[in-house]
Specification:
By secondary structure, the protein is mostly helical. The protein contains eight helices and no strands. Helix 1 packs antiparallel against helix 8 and helix 6 packs antiparallel against helix 7.
Length: about 210
């Protein structure tokens, strides 16, 4: 029983990249406005971390609902046995961790520099997963997708590194408030512009169940 055709998988992947990219662009804009002392109303500090959490929660929900409510069980069985989808779930978990850690730090539920490094660490972990992200399709499609995701991975790692630098040294170097935001916005543009190459998800035998 075929869950989705290669064309459907390409469309679903493109849309997911676009949605996540738009969310990251909004996060970057909000973080920039916060760094420039806009959005100073009470609770504004939780706005962009909450969007990160939502981005993480969106991904598995989107995956499970691709085939419709009537096929959630089939989609679940396929997804938990598919390396690419497991990587998506892992990245989603790191996104939720990153956003939740930032919220907890802002709310002073946890205190200390070490807690501020959880978000950067989670972002670096996401970047590493992107560097080794599983791709499916023809040899040419896989080569192109791997290259694109490696660019994304390197950028996300840099976002995490500079977010960590901000947590450690912003009180000494105020300019550190900005590099991770700029890099996140560039990452968002890459995600928004990403399109699965021709041949993606073709010659992929795990597409069928039963």
């Amino acid at each position: 029983m075929e869950l989705q055709t290669p064309e459907q998988l390409q469309f679903a992947s493109n849309l997911a990249h676009w949605i996540e990219g738009v969310v990251f662009a909004i996060v970057a804009i909000i973080a920039l406005l916060r760094a420039r002392n806009y959005f100073t109303w009470k609770g504004a500090e939780y706005l962009w971390p909450s969007l990160i959490v939502m981005a993480g929660l969106f991904l598995p929900a989107y995956i499970f609902l691709q085939g419709g409510l009537s096929r959630v069980a089939d989609t679940w069985r396929f997804s938990v046995n598919d390396p690419q989808q497991r990587e998506h779930f892992l990245m989603a978990a790191f996104l939720v961790l990153a956003g939740a850690a930032e919220i907890a730090a802002e709310a002073k539920i946890v205190q200390g520099t070490i807690w501020r490094l959880i978000t950067p660490g989670a972002l670096v972990a996401i970047g590493i997963v992107l560097l080794v992200h599983t791709e499916y399709g023809t040899a040419e499609a896989i080569a192109e997708s791997v290259t694109e995701h490696r660019y994304q991975g390197i950028l996300v790692i840099l976002v995490g590194v500079f977010k960590g630098a901000e947590a450690l040294w912003r009180h000494r170097f105020r300019w550190l408030a900005y590099p991770w935001i700029v890099l996140l916005f560039i990452t968002a543009l890459l995600l928004i512009s990403y399109r699965e190459p021709p041949g993606a998800y073709r010659q992929h035998t795990i597409l069928t169940i039963g």
